[in-house]
């Protein structure tokens, strides 16, 4: 029986699904999260959550206490220019803390690819494995290609392109060979990695049963969806132009799209087949993987999505040492003659296909301008499930606090000269409910002040119309608030 397992990246796409698999098996599990509240409401009763950050080594000691095996699923895919240095430091801190705690094994998920001209993203993935091994702890590194599953970054890109574009202009990288793996097969490898016999650190290359290109994947997706699509090859789409194109028609914003394209320009196929001999996993082919992903999308049961990870928000700005001006607060309240749960219902549906209840074209324009500046844009949408969770991405916002029927607090992830939040609160009031909407902004310098004052008239227009629409939505056709019997 494997002892206590430490899982990092449990708020991310793969880590979130792996956590559920380990809980289903009854594994003793501890999750490390930068924000404990994000996971507290999601984990099983026997799973422990500790707060810590691999970039802050003093926070790791408690996380490693009593740990036998640790999963390292941390990666700064969406971060800024210094993501390689951040990954290097985080891996070094993690490996050293594991060594001091006497950890038996680190399981690390890296990326396939060989050669001296790898993209910065793939080069960093390989370097992280080397840094972890230098700690002296035995490391089992799995190197995977494209991950196919509902909500995965690659599948979301394929789905959006094929569904939205009858005719696709495709650059050369669309035909580069890869060996995609179904997310369920990847999870099977990760779970089996706990018990695979290992005398020393080792790297295993893993992939699905087929060697195909992104073009093959798009054609197969179209076939299974019954769509006729035309793909026209062009030689002149640079990674920058391609990433902007992806940002306009898919949920990927430009920075992530550019890193993805820089990586898939290189073949990512398995050259060492030893994983098939060592692991009790027989990975499926492309058709089965796509079919499973489509089924999950249609059932709206995607367990996690690539943008669930906080690194998906793009370049993380370090606010330490920044002096903020006075906080601007703008609040308005509407009263409705319905119960608080009914008054809160429209708020719980906000974002994604529902939109923002007023001037949705302005919200889309704001997202487009953010996309052009390298931000997240608005195409991330929201999880398909009705229930909001702390940490969810809602278009270009992130759920910071959520209390069903009472409170939703969103933090902005667009590029701003400061920090911004949008909060909705519902309370009982005079036999009905009071809906309060509050916008908060912490400006930085003169640019922050100019931003607030220049856009304040527009914000007043949009936010006033928004809360009016929410109040009408809550009142229209809803059951009236309960009143005391005479």
UniProtKB/TrEMBL annotation:
Note the superkingdom of the native organism: Bacteria
SUPFAM superfamilies reported in the protein's UniProt record: Bet v1-like, NAD(P)-binding Rossmann-fold domains
NAD(P)-binding domain boundaries: 9-132
Q: What is this protein called?
A: NAD-dependent epimerase/dehydratase
Give the species.
Candidatus Methylomirabilis lanthanidiphila
Q: What is the lineage of its organism?
A: Bacteria, Candidatus Methylomirabilota, Candidatus Methylomirabilia, Candidatus Methylomirabilales, Candidatus Methylomirabilaceae
């Amino acid at each position: 029986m494997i002892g206590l397992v430490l899982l990092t990246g449990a708020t991310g796409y793969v880590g979130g699904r792996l956590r559920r698999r380990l809980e289903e098996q009854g594994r003793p599990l501890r999750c490390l999260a930068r924000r404990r509240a994000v996971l507290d409401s999601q984990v099983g009763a026997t799973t422990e959550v500790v707060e810590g950050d691999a970039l802050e080594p003093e926070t790791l000691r408690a996380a490693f206490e009593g740990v036998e095996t640790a999963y390292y699923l941390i990666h700064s895919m969406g971060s800024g220019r210094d993501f390689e240095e951040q990954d290097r430091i985080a891996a070094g801190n993690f490996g050293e803390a594991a060594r001091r705690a006497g950890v038996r094994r680190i399981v690390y998920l890296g990326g396939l690819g060989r050669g001296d001209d790898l993209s910065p993203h793939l080069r960093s993935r390989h370097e992280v494995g080397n840094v972890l091994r230098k700690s002296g702890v035995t490391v089992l590194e799995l190197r995977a290609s494209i991950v196919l599953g509902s909500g995965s970054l690659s599948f979301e890109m394929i789905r959006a392109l094929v569904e939205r574009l009858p005719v696709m202009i495709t650059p050369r990288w669309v035909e580069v060979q890869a060996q995609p793996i179904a997310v369920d097969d990847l999870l099977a490898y990760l779970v089996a990695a706990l018990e695979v016999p290992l005398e020393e650190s080792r790297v295993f290359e893993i992939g699905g049963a087929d060697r195909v290109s992104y073009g093959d994947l798009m054609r197969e997706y179209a076939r299974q969806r019954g769509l006729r699509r035309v793909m026209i090859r062009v030689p002149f789409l640079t990674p920058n132009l391609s990433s902007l194109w992806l940002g306009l028609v898919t949920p990927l914003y430009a920075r992530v799209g550019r890193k993805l394209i820089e990586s898939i320009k290189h073949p990512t196929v398995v050259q060492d087949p030893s994983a098939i001999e060592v692991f009790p996993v027989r990975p499926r082919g492309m058709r089965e993987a796509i079919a499973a992903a489509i089924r999950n999308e249609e059932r709206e049961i995607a367990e996690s999505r690539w943008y669930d990870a906080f690194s998906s928000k793009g370049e993380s700005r370090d606010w330490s040492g920044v002096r903020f001006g006075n906080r601007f607060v703008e609040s308005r309240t509407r009263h409705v003659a319905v119960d608080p749960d009914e008054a809160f219902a429209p708020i719980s549906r906000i974002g994604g296909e529902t939109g923002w209840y007023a001037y949705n074209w302005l919200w889309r324009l704001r997202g487009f301008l953010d996309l052009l500046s390298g931000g997240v844009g608005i195409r991330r949408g929201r999880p398909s499930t009705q229930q909001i969770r702390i940490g969810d991405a809602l278009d270009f916002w992130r759920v910071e606090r959520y209390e069903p029927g009472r409170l939703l607090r969103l933090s902005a992830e667009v590029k701003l000269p400061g920090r911004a939040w949008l909060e909705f609160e519902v309370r009982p009031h005079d036999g009905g409910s009071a809906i309060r909407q509050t916008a908060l902004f912490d400006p930085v310098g003169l640019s922050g002040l100019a931003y607030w004052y220049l856009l304040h008239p527009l914000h007043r227009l949009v936010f006033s119309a928004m809360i009016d629409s929410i109040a009408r939505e809550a009142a229209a056709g809803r059951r009236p608030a309960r009143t005391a019997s005479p």
